[in-house]
Amino acid sequence: MQVPFLDLKAQYKQIEREIVPMVKEAMAAGAFIGGAQVSGFEEEFAEFCDSKFCIGVGSGTDALRFALMAAGIGPGDVVITVPNTFIATTEAISQVGAVPVFVDIDPHTYNMDPGKVTGFLEQKCTIEKTPNQPINQSTNQLINQATKRPVKAIIPVHLYGQPADMDPILDIANTHNLIVIEDACQAHGALYKDKKAGSMGTAGCFSFYPGKNLGAFGEAGALVTQDEEIAHKIRMFRDHGQQQKYFHDIEGYNGRLDAIQAGVLRIKLKQLQSWNQARRQHAADYNELLQEIPGVKLPAESGYAESVYHLYVILADKRDELQKFLQDKGIFTGLHYPLPLHLQKAYAHLGYKQGDFPVTEKAAARLLSLPMFPELTRQQIEYVTDAIKEFMNAK
Predict the structure, then answer these.
(1) I need a surface site. Which of 3, 99, 100, 359 has the fewest CB within 10 A?
(2) pTM attached to this predicted model
(3) What are the structural domains, with CATH classification, of the chain?
(4) Cα 377 versus chain centre, distance
C-alpha cells in the first residue's frame, strides 16, 4: 500500500465541477487581478475568522511582512517569536528591518511558552537597570538588551494547527505595550477558547500555500484584523502604495491576491469546516492506534484549544531510521522542522548557539509528521500505525 504524506489530487476531484467553470469564466472575462472574486473571498474569510476585515495578499510571507509594517514595526525594533517555525516568520521580521529574538516553546504543544516571554522581558529590564551585572543568557539577548533596542511586538505561531496560549500572551503584550501579530498560517479555523485563530491580535496572518488546510492552486495569503486603519495600510502596501491607479501615497509592494486563486479559495472555504473535522477524526484515530507505544510521544491538544491538525506530529526515538523504514513500506512522512531557526546558517549573525533553547532542540531531533489530509482513510491510518508498531517493537 502507498500512503502519501498529502493527496491534493483527491481533494481536487471533489471540487473539480466547481473549479473548472470558475476558471473558464475568469479566463473569458480577462479578470485576473482584483475584482469580484477577491472582494468576495475577503468578505467570506473575514466572516469565517470572526474579523471585521480581510485583505488578500500574495503569500503568507507577504501577510506577515505587511502586518508588521502596518503596525509600525521597523528598523532596530525587536520582535519576540519562537525558533520552532518555518523561516517565513522571521524573514518577515528581518525584511522590515527589525530583529527577531527567540524564546523557547512549551514541551507539550510546541508553541510559544508565555513564561519564557515574561522571563526574557524581565531579564531585559534587569540588564538595562544594572548593565554591569552578569546574567547567564544567550549572546543574542545580551546584545539586544545592552543596546537597549525596544521590544515592539510578539509573533506567536499557531503551530501544526493548534493555537498558542493567547490569553497570557495578550496580557504580557498589554502590560508591556507590545503589538501581537498572530502567525496563523497553519491554523485556518482553529479555536482558542471559542475564538478563531487570527482574530485576537492586531492582525492574523494566513498562508494559502496548496498544502494548507485551506490551500490555493499556487501562492496566496491573507490578513484579518479588527482595525480599520491597519486594513487600510495593508491594502496600500500590497498594491504599490496606491489607493487610486497611478497615484502613489507611499512606496509599496506587488503583493496582491489574484482573482483565480481567490475563486479557488472561495470554493474550498465552503468545505473547510468539514475537512477540518475529518482531520480531527484522523488525529483521534492515530491517537487510538498509537497509544502506549514505547518510544513514541503523541501530540497533545490543550484544553483551551481545538486544533485543526494541519500536521499530525509525533516525537519518535530513532526518528531517521523510522522515517526510512516507513518510506520503504510506501509511507511518506515529513520533518517540521529538523533544524531550529536559531541554529540555521541564515541566522548565525544573531549569535545563538546549541543549547540556548533546549525544549525546541530536543523536539527537533525527534519530530516526525505522519500523513494527514482530509481524504485519508482508516485503512491507510491502520497501515501507518501498524508499521510504526512493527519498527518500535523490533528496535
Answers:
(1) 359
(2) 0.96
(3) 8-269 (3.40.640.10), 272-394 (3.90.1150.10)
(4) 26
